[in-house]
Amino acid sequence: MAKVTFTAWKTKAQLLDVRSEFYPPTWYAGPDMRSHACATVEAWKLHGNVPHHVEATALLTDAILHDDGQRNSIFSIRATYSAAFCRFVTGLVDTKVTGPRRTMFQRAMDLGLPASFVELRHEATHREPPSLVVLRKATQRSLEWLWDNYWANIDLEVTGGAIRHNHDESLSVTTALGEVLQEFIHGSVSRPVQKKRKRGQDDGFAGQLVEICGVSRDGMDAGLAALSVLLLDRKLLLDSERRLGDSMDAMFDKWDPVLRKVADSQSSFLLFLSEELVHRLAFNPATESPENTIAEGIFLWLDHLLTSPAWESQRPSLPRDYILAVCNGQSTHWAKVVAQNLILQQQVSAAVVPRPQISANKSLRKRAHNVSVGDVSKKLQGHGWRLAEKWDNRPLGMTSKS
């Protein structure tokens, strides 16, 4: 009979989201989400069954966030570090809780825990709290140990964001990407319409997608290409209830933050996505009809990437010449529309644009000539000024000769 394991989190994706908040990837440039991760673990504790490694990570991270000399006293900072570190070590090596009775040093050796951790724990418990320099270094080493011995070795079976390395790696990558995308969709549906997703949530989904693409056997580009195909094969970018002529703004608002984040991290993603969009319009006979709602949605996505201000910074990665070449050689309705739009954009860009600044200057000069000197003189005299009968151009500070 299969063993049932109860966890505080609903899906593995939630645990991996917290991991990415505790240990953000090197490419991540968003807000600091460690405080949110600590709060999540605290909520999980109310459910029970939180592994000691997860709780210890939250305690040590919270101690780092507490390390602010302007808001907290040095004594309270040292006490917080000491309490978090002692709980981390004690929860691992205290053999009075579970297992055969052994010394803490023996237990630490079994776990691969540095013996210095046990010594520092003893000092912090029975003597004066160690210095801040020692505590900061020990906390950082503890978080590194937790990563190597727990977080990096989480079961990689596909469950909402990670993958199991098996013989069919490409299938695993596609499955893992699908799980993350479904988690994103279900999370969006479950939230009230008036409540927008936080930026960190979008960044977390985008980070998972990039991370999965990076473990593809054929490299990052192969993973990004698989992501582009998956988005269109499963019609994730389209609203199943949308009718012909309806707006796509809701789908753009939903997907733009995540897709732009992926494109910011991997510029080639926009290349693969746009190529896949134009291939669906030009080479798929099912999308030839002008009345095809799916084809219209794909066209609107491609047009959105080509024209929307939201994609302005990523637009240099778009293969405009390739898109135009593909669409020019096809007779399908939507391919023709794409080609016409691109040609029109090129003509507008190449057209001679009037210089508004020069026209404005001419207009100003014309208005200035229309104002007579007499009118100016009358206005100045009304304020006590008068025009000199003879202009004296002596330098300042010199008097005229009598």
Automatic annotation (TrEMBL):
One of its GO terms (cellular component) is preribosome, large subunit precursor. InterPro entries: Las1 (IPR007174). Coiled coil: none annotated. GO terms for molecular function: endonuclease activity. GO terms for biological process: maturation of 5.8S rRNA; maturation of LSU-rRNA. It holds the Pfam family Las1. This is Uncharacterized protein. It comes from Penicillium cataractarum. The lineage of its organism: Eukaryota, Fungi, Dikarya, Ascomycota, Pezizomycotina.
